[in-house]
Amino acid sequence: MPLSPTSDQDAIRRAWAVFKKRADDRVVTVERVDQDVWDEDVTALPPDGPEWLHS
Amino acid sequence: MVSSIGLRGERLTVAKLIYSAISSLDGYVADEDGNFDWAVPDEEVHAFINDLDRPVGTYLYGRRMYETMVGWETDPTLADRSPLMRDFAQIWRAADKIVYSRTLERVTSARTRIERDFDPEAVRRMKAAAGRDLTVGGPDLAAHAIKAGLVDEWRLFVTPIVVGGGKRSVPDNVRVKLELLDERRFKGGVVYLHYRTRT
User: Fold this and answer.
1) Domain region containing B79
2) Distance between CA A3 and CA A11 in Å, rounded?
3) Domain count, chain B
4) Residues 6+ away with beta carbon under 8 Å from B33
5) Is there a domain that residue B9 lies in?
6) What ipTM was assigned to the predicted interfaces of this complex?
7) Can you give the CATH number for the domain in which B64 is found?
8) I want to staple B72 with a disulfide (CB 3.0 to 4.6 A). Which of B92, B142, B143, B162 is the partner?
9) B7 in a domain, yes or no?
10) What digits encode the pLDDT tens for the residues B98-148?
11) Per residue in A11-33, pLDDT tens?
């Protein structure tokens, strides 16, 4: 079966573009979480000091 | 992993030839337009492939597969994109590559040579002499290896897509009995199937 509509080089470029975009998108997602969304929920944390010790 | 065989007190070490491919559910590695961007592995699959390929000593490629993969050595931006990509770039560069092509004039990666013909006997000798396993990539080259009875194991990643036609991952007119060694499902819907050729 002929594989004519897309040349080999175009198909390769296209696959690499998807691959690189995925890698770049992952970096953007991490940056957004780190800088904007991070809001520490102090009520979910264990208390400090001796209050944390079970009697 | 290279297998050791005891034979009348001798210890022979035989490297395996592994066919590795990422295909659609209907069994194509490229669609009718020649595209395979839908087969690009996600992060989880890529990490798994890195570990599978880490022990591989030699990649056998057809021309198109070589031209796809050589970016791991010629594109300087890849390794900086993620630790995963840097890891695979190092794995790929460390292995030997043989490209089977009658038209490719030169290679652009190190540890790479061109063979003009696929000689099954030469591959058998290579397996016998190799200290590490070999993989064959690219469906046309793999078809020669499969038909010559050279493929010992099959690693197929089935992508959750039906493309309706194109380049088949496994050639027509062959009959090979297989034993399932391992399987795994990934969050993105890809399924990994690992088979051994029954002798």
Assistant:
1) 15-197
2) 10
3) 1
4) A3, A5, A6, A11, B166
5) no
6) 0.81
7) 3.40.430.10
8) B92
9) no
10) 999 999 999 999 999 999 999 999 999 999 999 999 999 999 999 999 999
11) 999 999 998 888 887 766 556 66
